[in-house]
Amino acid sequence: MRTALSAVFCVALSATGCVGYKDVTDGPCDQLLRCAALADPGKLNEHIGTYGAEGSCWKSVPHDLCETTCSKILDGYAASSPKTTECGPIPPIANLSDASVTDGSASMTDGGASTDGGPADMGGSCGPASCAGCCMGGVCQPGTANSACGGGGMACAPCASPMVCDAIARTCGANPDEVIKLTIYDADIYSRKSNGDPWDFPSGYPDVFVTIDGVRRTTVEDDTIYPYWDKTLYMTRRELMNTGVYVAVWDEDISYNDRISYSKLLKVTDADLLAGKIEWRAWDDVKRIQFDVSR
User: Fold this and answer.
1) Which end of the chain lies in a sparser environment, N or C, as judged by fewer CB atoms within 10 Å?
2) Can you list the residues of the chain whose pLDDT is less than 50?
3) Domains of the chain: which residue ranges?
């Protein structure tokens, strides 16, 4: 399949002022785009998104099924727009493993329609009874592409960036690989340990740092109960929202580090992202700690 997009736009702009586009070697999907440009311009962008050179069909199912589907859609246009020559009979598609085309019409070799989301609803009656994916232009689509997402035989819908189509649920949702910025901002530490002892013998404030999952850590803020780090870590949505990370606060000492707070699971929500920050209070010997979150 070689899509002559320049020909499509030429046809769309002027059906009589463009010559030579039929000289392009192409297939039924290319002809479908030329046909739609004249017979159904309102559907042109949808067809380009599905059957154009970078269309979702080519990325999700065998190419011969895409071309077979284009042939069937062309049949419908040929019947409804008999005077539009660009929608007329097309040459037979050769060497198709799953479909055969005779006299410009296409049919599945097994005579059945796919119910597993493939564009094989050859009867033009795409719906809940015949399609597990979604319907676009009367044809069943897998429903797993960002440009055509959906299930249950409902109409396909594009996923607005940065959302992506969940291949299992067939619904648009947040990209689990989206990078989120987690900033360990600042904290207030109680002036003494919970047992009344000073942080540093015989007196003195702690040297405070924070660990994430026991691996990543901030710098040490020396001799303070008001540490300020402004340390930003970059993590995926999956890591921060689905799994979460464990956070702990420590007092660095020469012999061994004193624990200021025990490890606590931090899981970010969309509400946190909207607010832009998370604040914990009365967490062991931490009076308050703030994390900033953003995309």
Assistant:
1) C
2) 1-25, 91-123
3) 1-111, 113-173, 179-294
